[in-house]
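Exam revision sheet. Question 4 asks you to relate a sequence to its structure. Input first:
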Amino acid sequence: MIARAPALRSRSLSRRVSPLLGLLALIASCGGGETSVGGITPPPGGSAGAGAFTLAASATSLSVVQGATGTLTLTIARSGSFTGAVDLTISGLPTGATGSLQPAQIAAGQTTSTVSVAVAATTAAATSSFTIQATGSGVANQSVSVQLTVTAVSQPGLFSLSVSAPT
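Answer key, structure tokens:
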């Protein structure tokens, strides 16, 4: 019995220490006392598991005739605990094209915005891309690219006439 007593004490001690070692290992794997989860540090102003959002456009391409305006719809989907506003900006439009967002900020509780791209009559007929950037507080930025095709104005009523002398 004397030989077994130390073994029993050591088992009893290991039962009490084992959970503590597991807790210490968990704390160490999470980056100590920092506010990270699984070694991933949240963005500034956020907290671990703060949520996110996605950005989608109703179309990946937009075709606009010179002198006209084209539109598409942006939709955001919030997830996790993110419920904040999302700010939108447009960049990369060709010379002679202007973009507007209605609204430029998708408020909390709202999910859509309309993008309008106005193309001047003097804008070169060509294909290019522009980007819509979406930012929210404490979450990763999102962006979507849209291919813009500017087409030449069709000019019905213009014709050519040629005359040739009979031979």
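Marking note for examiners. The chain has two domains: 1-32, 52-151.
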